[in-house]
Amino acid sequence: MVNATCDTRSCSSLVRSTWSKYGSKRYHHPFAGDLTLGFEAFTPIGEPDQTLGLYTVEPGSPSENALRMLARWTPTNGVEG
């Protein structure tokens, strides 16, 4: 089993070869504004039709703050507490 917390830059070449894409992606959300998220797409060995996409955010960044605001948002009440 592959350790999912492995940093793609420090893993063995076998593990690294299973990562199809990584980097960052920028999105524009209509309420939260611009978001920059880390992205990794993992295709498990022996499961070429399966892909696991992971999105991360830099702690303390404006993107993290925007995502926290969205987590509190409700369609009928707007942002709560």
Helix proportion range:
10-25%
Cα-atom radius of gyration: 16 Å
Beta percentage is 35-45%
Strand order of the largest sheet: 1-2-3
Globally, the shape reads elongated
Number of helices: 2
Query: What is the string of helix and strand elements?
Result: HEEEHEE
Largest sheet: 3 strands, antiparallel
Low-pLDDT ranges = none
Distance between the termini: 41 Å
Class derived from helix and strand content: alpha+beta
Total number of strands: 5
Mean pLDDT over all positions: 78
Walk me through this protein's architecture.
This protein is an alpha+beta fold. The protein is 20% helix and 37% strand. It has 2 helices and 5 strands, in the order αβββαββ. The strands form 2 sheets. It has a 3-stranded antiparallel β-sheet. A two-stranded antiparallel ribbon has the order 4-5.
What descriptors fit this protein?
81 residues, alpha+beta, two-stranded antiparallel sheet, 2 helices
